[in-house]
Structures are given as structure tokens and as C-alpha cells.
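Subject: Zn(2)-C6 fungal-type domain-containing protein structure
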Amino acid sequence: MRATLRRSCNACAKAKHRCDLRTPHCSRCIKKKFNCTYANEPLTSTPDRNESPPSETSGNGRHAVMNGSEVSTMTLRDGPTTPKFSDTSVGLLNPGNAFLDPFDSYPPTRLPRVTAQRLIHHLRRKIEDSSLAFQDETMNSVVTLAAIEHGKGNVESSRMHIDGVKRMVDFRGGINEVKGTSPLTARMVSWVSMLVTGAPQFQTQDDFGFGSGIVSIPQWQLAGLESEHMALDGLDVDPAMSNIISRLRTIFHEPRLSRLTSTELHDLTCYVSHKLLLLPPLSPANPIRSAISECLRYALALYMLILHGTTYYSHVDLASTVMIYLKTHLEALARMNYVHGSLGTWAISMGMVAGVGTKDHQWFMDQARMAQIAFGLQTWENVLVSLESILWMRTEQLELFRKKWREILNLTT
């Protein structure tokens, strides 16, 4: 662990003078002819365009395969051989082309190009040093670059970064091991990797906290001990979905468990979202039960994203994908002439609120108007009864639902 987090050079820090963080020597040290050394390499260090490309691996170097990907190894002077990923394994540019600007087309309204350049240069140096390649800061930087590339529309590059950070996580023993020493890094990696790929990239622990996957919160395990599976207003639901809904209903409705901190809400959302999206497809032997369970599955995934809000990176792409599945299964229930007022109202509400600004938003609005007439929803209080009968947590997001339903109610009165 580093003894200090400061970025200024030692001379400027001692003199309590502002350092411009230039490398290899800051301007003040050059002017004063001081010995300029940094306790930590500054993140804003300027790439040296005259820096020569790294030499090819010497005869002492070796190559190995770990988790199906090629990694290079180098022998440390004072320690054993430590593996480090090649640049291509994490989607970085070839170090030999370090002078190129990979963000020529980067939109100026997002992260400034110079900041992205410095991030890549800093990360490249980290990965070239096998003692730093698996540090938290390196993993955070790779995930950040994945988000940047995803925002630019470079899906393939973004996935390369995510594949690289997943191998880093594997090398450190799994996402649970990373969280044990670096909770913030584990949260960022697991959450952002799901958002930019549109699918979970890590398994979850089981309901009792066993396994190397993403960890639940203590309330999740307590909810399993304190409640039996609750009947969902006569709904025939798959046992796996019934378990998830029952635990969440206990957490949301039990005052002692529902006082979640923002960190606990994030961890719960990450765990439940992964758990939901990792569920295997249901058997078509019981099509109604399958469609009901799938509606609950995808509507609940949207609800957790709504409760959570935006953290680290926008979840709009993931929500859009989930809405397509929710719409598909709602249409399947309609074709089977299956009608359930509370389920329909609840699922449509999730799509209507999560879908604001998307192409499917109007479809959910139209469904809400039909539900209002079919189920006799005259007031917001009528709607709230249906929402609470499935799953509901009274938070500030309640106003989002009330606002959308008032639009519907005002149009039909």
C-alpha cells in the first residue's frame, strides 16, 4: 500500500509549492536545479513523444497461457517471475505507436482528448511494469477506458478492455477476493463491465454467501431466514424468481432491513441484476408460467436500475435491452389472453419509467392507457395498490412513477 496519495514531486511538497506535475522533472525543479522525484507517478504526466518503444522480450522472457489468453512474463530483479498482460489482451494500443492520438475523433463534449491520452499513457506504463499490472489503479483505468470506448461506439475495443480486466480479476482470485481488499475497485469493475457489455461478466455467490462471485448484502441472507416464499397474488412463478422476489419484498417492507445506505443499495442492485440476468431460460412446457416469470424477471431488473440511478456510467443501453425482453413477454401473455391486473400494471410501470427517451417508451405509455381502462385505475392511489402488491419500496423515485401515471390519468379523465 502506498504511504501517500499525493501527486506533487517531493521538492514541491516539502516547500508547499504547487507542482505542475511535468515528467520526468517539473518546471520548478528544472528552474531551481533540484532533484525532482515523485512518490507516485502523476496521473497528468505528459507523454514523452521521444520515448523509444519497449524492446522485444529477451531470451530470459517466457510466454504462458492463463485462462485461454496469452500473457507475457518478465523476471523481477528482486523477486520471482510475475505475469503481466500483453497490451493487446486489454485492448491497449501497441506501445510502439505511443505517439499516435487514439482520440482524434473523440467528441469534445465528453472526456477531453488530452485527458484520455494521459490516461492511456499512464496505463501503458503500469502494464509494462509487472509489479503494477494488477494493481487496483490499473484495473480502474482499464474499466474507465472500456467506458470511454463504449461511449464512442467502439464496441469491439470496449469489450477487449473488459476481457482484459476480467483476466486481471481471475489472476487475483475472483471478484470476491478483489472486493476483500479493494471494495471500490470490485464495485466499479463488476458494475461497469455489465453496463458496457449489456450482460453480466461475473457470477454471483449463492444465497448463503458461498462462492467467489459477486457478494450480496447481509440483509439478503437475513431476508431468507426471516421469510417464507410469499404468494404473489395468485401468480404461478418459477421458484428461482419467487425466491428473489420474496427476499426483496422482505427487505423493502421490513423497516429494520429497508434502511439501506447508498453503498448497500448499489451492492444489492449489482447482485440482484447479475442474478436476474444470469437465470437460465425457462422450460416451454408451461408457457404461461414461463411468460409470467420472465415478465417479473425483466421488470424487476428495470426496477432495480430505477432505484439505483446512474453510478459510474449510464445504464441506458442495458435498460433498453431489458425493455425489449419485457415487451416481448408482455406481448406473449397478451397472445395467450392472460390478464392479471397487478402484474400488468407493475410491469408496464417499470417499462414506462425506465423507457423515457427510448423508442419503446410510447409502446409502454399506450399499454398503460389500456391498463388504466381495463383495470379501473381511476387515481394514483389505485395504481399504488397494484404496485405494492408485487414489489415496492418507498423512495424518492416514487415521484417518477406518479408523474408518468398522472399523464395517463389526465388523458383518460
